Amino acid sequence: MLLTFSRFPLGKRTVIRCISYIQGQSPEPNSREYFYFIDHQGMLFLDDSKMKNFTSCFKEKKFLQFFFRRLNFNNTGKYEKEFPFLSPCGKENNFVRCDDLPIVFTHILETENSNDADYLSYGYTGDLLKVKFEPEKLCMLPESGRVYHPGPESTGGIGLIKSSLAIQFSQKFIYRNKDNTDEMPIAFLWKGIEYSLTDETLQKLKFLKLRLQT
Length: 214
Hints:
Elements: E1 2-7, E2 14-20, E3 32-38, E4 44-46, H1 61-69, E5 72-73, E6 85-89, E7 92-98, E8 104-109, E9 119-122, E10 130-132, E11 139-140, E12 147-150, E13 158-161, H2 163-170, E14 173-174, E15 187-190, E16 193-196, H3 200-213
Parallel strand pairs: 3-7, 8-13
Antiparallel strand pairs: 1-2, 3-4, 5-6, 6-7, 8-9, 9-10, 11-12, 12-13, 14-15, 15-16
């Protein structure tokens, strides 16, 4: 597959790099390379799939757990700009690019006891992959409407909240001026408790985005 990466300054298309690959290519004896894509809903696809939708994404939970647990930054010296993440499996390298971030939280796992922690699940694995939900560390960007939360450190420590879940959360954000939702929220109401939002996730997100752009 020939993959072209572009940017659009002032509305004009400028090609900045092209790469070519074949799924399962073997650049060295006993080694294989595969290429994947994660969309902003957190679904995993072979990168060269022509149709990227629910019918063509990977769904087997054990495979997804295996894949995402090994996901980290691509420091191989190969395809680092185009595929900034890697999920190694023995002598097999699975190169990964994504629409936004590789970790996308898809479900909130609530506990019945209010004293117990809730969790955010990612990778479409149910409760196989999850992080503790920390309401005070949510970050909503007004310019995009996207919501972020701390995630595994191996991929930068930040994950994106799936859009359907973000819409649910958006109803619980509190703003300094309730009539102005174009600014960042200052608090989040969860299970009757108002959590003041910190800027920890925002600062991590800025650092991660900068790393991915350089």
